[in-house]
Every structure is written in structure tokens, then in C-alpha cells.
Design a protein that fits this description.
The chain has 226 residues and is α+β, with helices and mostly antiparallel strands. Helix content is 38%, strand content 7%. It contains seven helices and four strands; from the N terminus they run H-H-H-E-H-H-E-H-E-E-H. Strands 1-2-4-3 form a four-stranded antiparallel β-sheet. A hairpin with a 7-residue loop joins strand 3 and strand 4.
């Protein structure tokens, strides 16, 4: 077997050395990169994350949800002015009573104490109402009576209703409302609308001069006009 010339035998050895050196350099670069990633885990993205992957995006706390508007909370409750059964003008724990104008409430309680001597108890069917509750009542009235014009004879808007401002109260039952109709002027408590024998407001001048002439219904009341 003939040995190859020296020039042929030395050529492969010269070509392997650069390849080995290059491979070592690549391995060293990879090791350095991995070592940097291990030392800085927060700066190094996951090798499996793509630009569209959620893991590739920076971590952020979820944005707080905006508060729900009261208009969409659902069924109104006592906090909105809904009155449970059996509430009288003496019940401070009910917002519909407690949020009434202080002077109106004082007059109602004076009347209630004297009404008790006649065997009459003044129950509250409705008092203060939140704007949301008032608007819901108005929407129901429109559905019931078929038009906004007819509904306005019974339910005011939240902007004009004296219930929302705490200046009106609906008294029941019928015998209590009738008693207050006869004696209320002495306490400054007056019926305001002929079609609502339960609706009372404070008119302090009535103590000396009697209650003013009633409106046929709320549509005749200048306060209800936009």
C-alpha cells in the first residue's frame, strides 16, 4: 500500500482545526447568553414565547372595573327609598323617612302623636326617593298609562319630584290620609293635588292661613314644568 505524499496527509489536519475552534466559540457564546439569562431572569424572554404569545407581553395588573351606574343595579331597595310594609313617620331606620326634610318630618311626627289620640296611625307609603328610583317609577307609569303626558299626571321626573328632594310624603291608609286632610293645616301639612289624596307637603303658612288651593294634578303645578 503506497503512502500518500506529505502534502496530501497534512491538508485534512489544517482544515479540522478552524472548524473545532469555531464550534468552541459558538458553544461559548451560547453558554454566555444562557448564563446572562439565568442571572437576569426578568430581562430574558422565554425561548418559547412568540411576539403574539401572552407570555411575551410585560406583566401588568388588571385594570379596575369601572363602577356600575346606579341606573343598572337592578331592583331598587330600601336605600333607594322603597318602603317596607308597616313603616310609620316615627321610623328613623328607614331612608324613605330619615331622608325627609327635617321640618316636614317634625310636623308629621307632631301630627302623628296627636292623631294617635284619635286612634289614627300615620303610615308612610312613600317618602324620600333616589333619582334612580323616581325615574324607574316614571318609566313604569309611562308603560301603564300609555304616554308620557298621561304618566305626568301621576309621576314627576327625578329633576322636579319633591320626593327626590325629600319634601313630600305619601300617607296611608285611607283613613289616616283623610284625618290628615282635615287636621293637617294645623301642622302646616297640606294636600297639594286633588287626584292624590295621599300626597302631603309642608306649607308653614297654612298654620295661620290654611292650606293653599290644590292643583288638579301635577301637570298644573308650575314646579313640574321644565
Amino acid at each position: 500500500m503506497t503512502r500518500p505524499p506529505p502534502s496530501v496527509r497534512t491538508t485534512p489536519r489544517r482544515t479540522r482545526r478552524p472548524l473545532v475552534v469555531g464550534a468552541v466559540a459558538v458553544v461559548a457564546a451560547i453558554a454566555a447568553a444562557l448564563g446572562h439569562a439565568l442571572l437576569n431572569p426578568q430581562q430574558a424572554p422565554s425561548p418559547w414565547a412568540s411576539p403574539r404569545s401572552p407570555s411575551a407581553a410585560p406583566s401588568r395588573a388588571p385594570a379596575p372595573l369601572p363602577p356600575l351606574h346606579r341606573e343598572f343595579r337592578g331592583t331598587p331597595g330600601e336605600a333607594d327609598g322603597v318602603v317596607p310594609d308597616g313603616v310609620t313617620v316615627l321610623d328613623d331606620g328607614i331612608p324613605a323617612v330619615a331622608n325627609l326634610d327635617a321640618n316636614l318630618l317634625e310636623a308629621l311626627r307632631r301630627a302623628a302623636r296627636e292623631g294617635a289620640d284619635d286612634g289614627v296611625e300615620l303610615f308612610v307609603n312613600s317618602g324620600w326617593r333616589s333619582p334612580e328610583y323616581q325615574n324607574q317609577l316614571l318609566r313604569k307609569a309611562v308603560a301603564k298609562y300609555g304616554s308620557e303626558a298621561e304618566a305626568a299626571r301621576w309621576v314627576a321626573t327625578a329633576k322636579t319630584s319633591p320626593h327626590v328632594s325629600g319634601d313630600a310624603v305619601d300617607i296611608g291608609p285611607a283613613d289616616a290620609a283623610e284625618w290628615l286632610s282635615r287636621h293637617g293645616a294645623g301642622y302646616g301639612l297640606c294636600r297639594i293635588y286633588r287626584n292624590e289624596p295621599w300626597h302631603y307637603e309642608l306649607r308653614t303658612e297654612a298654620i295661620a292661613r290654611g292650606c293653599p288651593r290644590m292643583y288638579a294634578d301635577p301637570t298644573q303645578d308650575p314646579r313640574m314644568r321644565p
